[in-house]
Predict the 3D structure of the following.
Amino acid sequence: MNFDSNQIAGGFYGLLVGDALGVPYEFKSAAQIPPLEQIEMTPPDNYPRTYAGVPVGTWSDDGAQALALLDSLLRCGKLDLNDFAQRLVDWKEAGKYAVGGIVFDIGITTNEAILNFMGSGEGTAGSVCGSRRASGSRTAISCWISRRCC
């Protein structure tokens, strides 16, 4: 399958906008999420946003990690686990790929994999399997780092 740069850019814009739209509703039960017709980039008045201090329109750690992966793939021309893992360190430590340079959330599994990489310098150092709960994208990112999928 071949994609042109406009299609790839459009996919990433969609990913980031969709991610930002969901940030206020993260970790809420279905009963806590407003009806579909009330879902906007700015949540309804008095809605208990998951991250009250995060500006509306901010993408999450998922969007930042997707940007880190894209940057690595574009610069290396292939999946380079050490380069990708270092970009995740840059995101975690310096806010690269995060809106305003601020990392406001990082999943337990992803953080563990990044810390393992920081300790070893090896892109295959992540430990990702176990009983910890992680979202699909976080698990995928961590699996790429560790070359082990759960």
In short: Residues 24 and 43 are 7 Å apart (CA to CA).
